Amino acid sequence: MRMAELSAESGVPVATVKYYLREGLLPAGERTSPNQARYSAAHVQRLRLIKALTDVGGLPLASVGAVLSAIDDDRTPHETMGVVQEELAGEPPAVSPEAAEWASERLRELAHRHGWKWHGEEDRTLANLIAALATAKELGHEKLADRLDEYFALAMRVAELDVEVVTGLTSFDRIIEAGLVATVLGDRIFTGLRHLAQEFVSRDLLDRAP
Q1: Which of 158, 163, 146, 2 is nearest to 78 (CA)?
Q2: Which residues of 102-112 are buried (b: 16+ CB within 10 A; e: fewer)?
Q3: I need a labelling partner for 155 at 20 to 30 A (CA). Which of 28, 36, 93, 146 fits?
């Protein structure tokens, strides 16, 4: 298909497609003449994936580029999903050293109880988790730490559901794509369902609160 057809099929404007090609986010098409190229269904799928990561997943293009580079570098699905997690996490916010140490200790205890490997605070996902728990303490809601085991159990079940999405897939590209969808879009789906559930549960509980 030509550029115009690629744009129509993917729903991405021609100018944006050309930008993605220049930035290396989209592989070059098969050159048919000095000014023309032919594109395939794989290009459509890559554009739809970029669109999902940016529009729904909320990832900046720099992060999308890092994720796509991990895919194109032939890393394992596990390694690639590690890149996704790092990019989703972003830079952790600043918290007081005392609160961060308190949160880190609570999470180390959780890791020990459940046999979870402690990666250290250099892991951005863990650093953001520490910052979130530390912020709860700074706001006077450190009792959230009392529910960590229950949150961990729920997170493990969600993770199992996410991994089941790729079970049975044989294509590396499809495994990575399914993993990305489960992680990035799954976060949005779960957050939305959680908010709906909170509204449902809180209607009775909070209406009775003094």
Answers
A1: 163
A2: bbbebbeebee
A3: 93
Q: Residue 41 burial (CB < 10 Å; 0-12/13-18/19+)? A: exposed
CATH code for the structural domain at 1-56 = 1.10.1660.10
DSSP 44-109: HHHHHHHHIIIIIT---HHHHHHHHHHHHTT--HHHHHHHHHHHHH-SPPP--HHHHHHHHHHHHH
Contacts of residue 12, defined as CB under 8 A and 6 or more positions apart, other chains included, come to 6, 20, 47, 50, 51
What is the model's pTM?
0.70
Domain coordinates of the chain in residue numbers?
1-56, 88-207
